[in-house]
Design brief:
- The protein has about 350 residues and is mainly alpha-helical.
- Among the domains are: about 130 residues; about 60 residues, CD2-Gal4, CATH 4.10.240.
- Helices cover about 50% and strands about 5% of the residues.
- The strands form two sheets. The protein has a two-stranded antiparallel sheet. It has a two-stranded antiparallel sheet with strand order 3-4.
- Strand 3 and strand 4 form a beta hairpin.
- Helix 1 runs antiparallel to helix 4.
- The radius of gyration is 66 Å and the shape is rod-shaped.
- Keywords: Coiled coil.
Length: about 350
């Protein structure tokens, strides 16, 4: 198999690197999809467990509030009295009563849980009578009010709160109900508990992340190799384009030379020798050497004839073998008298 060019080798390397990068990306995407699926299963299991816990918990009873004369969310208004009670007078504060309530104590005594004495509510406030629990309107309009049954007041216990009456008795605490322990859900044999499933999913997610972390340096190295191969391919493509341009120029030159030869051959008369095609000069200059050898071969016999005619050879002195010697002698005989003419 003939050796491949650098361009083909670089292209093969680039294809190999791209295939490796695509494989690495596919593995990373697969691991990421598995991680997302496991996280979704984990969230689903947690939601199911929370719903089961909510179903197992007993419902709490909300204590019913006693009607205090105001609706829920309604603000209670206050009104200042002209005759403050003894505790407010001693404290030097303003004595105020709720206009919507029916308590016999002022606002401060209700907050401090003190006995409100020596004062009177302002006009227009309905309060309970301290001795009798009948409702009395301060603004008597002459309409009789219905009487309520008297409640037996408990004697105050001895202690720090002796002699103090509370305006509102504290509600009795509700009996504590023992919370039912959550029953374990019956799990079929071979199935996993939610906690075990949670731990297994966490382990698999951590394993997927570690695999992704291991594959990242390989991806970086493959990307670097791919960039280098792309640079090499770019350089080879530039060289290939330059070579193709040179070949195109050479083809154009050959086409022009062929057109010129065809033109002259068409107008050349019959019997005239054609244009002598000069041998193309090779890179090593073999045509020039051939022409020089032909010139030397043509000059060789001429020099030999000149040597024989000049009489340089020893045989030329006899004048028999050389054809030119008698002519020279004849010329010399003819020139002799002419040369002797001036002597006379």
């Amino acid at each position: 198999m003939p050796p491949k060019s650098q361009d083909e080798i670089a292209a093969l390397r680039l294809q190999q690197a791209e295939a490796q990068v695509a494989l690495a990306r596919a593995t990373v995407e697969k691991l990421e999809a598995e991680r997302l699926a496991k996280e979704a299963a984990l969230r689903k299991a947690e939601a199911a467990e929370q719903e089961a816990e909510r179903a197992r918990q007993p419902k709490k009873r909300t204590p019913t509030k006693k009607a205090g004369g105001t609706a829920a969310g309604e603000e209670r208004t206050e009104k200042v009295t002209d005759a403050p009670c003894t505790p407010c007078r001693k404290a030097g504060t303003i004595c105020r009563y709720y206009t919507s309530g029916r308590s016999a104590a002022c606002v401060r005594c209700q907050d401090k849980k003190m006995k409100c004495e020596g004062g009177s509510p302002p006009v227009g406030v309905r309060v309970k009578k301290r001795k009798s629990h009948d409702l009395i309107d301060s603004d008597e309009d002459g309409t009789p009010t219905p009487k309520k049954k008297k409640k037996v007041e408990e004697t105050p216990k001895a202690g720090p709160s002796k002699g103090k009456e509370r305006a509102h008795p504290e509600p009795e605490p509700e009996p504590e109900v023992e919370k039912a322990r959550p029953k374990k859900i019956a799990v079929a044999e071979g199935s996993l508990d939610t906690r075990d499933l949670f731990l297994r999913v966490l382990q698999e997610v951590s394993a997927c992340r570690s695999e992704i972390r291991k594959l990242r340096p390989d991806m970086v190295s493959l990307q670097e190799e791919m960039s280098e191969l792309q640079d090499e391919v770019r350089k080879t493509r530039v060289e290939e384009a330059r070579i193709r341009m040179e070949l195109r120029k050479l083809d154009d030159f050959r086409n022009r030379a062929g057109a010129v030869e065809a033109y002259f051959a068409r107008y050349q008369p019959d019997g005239v020798p054609g244009i002598r095609e000069e041998p193309e000069a090779d890179e090593d200059g073999s045509a020039d050497e051939q022409e020089e050898s032909e010139q030397e071969a043509g000059k060789g016999p001429e020099k030999k004839d000149e040597g024989e005619g000049s009489g340089e050879s020893p045989e030329g002195t006899d004048g028999q073998e050389s054809g030119k010697e008698p002519e020279k002698t004849g010329e010399g005989s003819e020139k002799g008298p002419e040369g002797q003419g001036p002597k006379k």
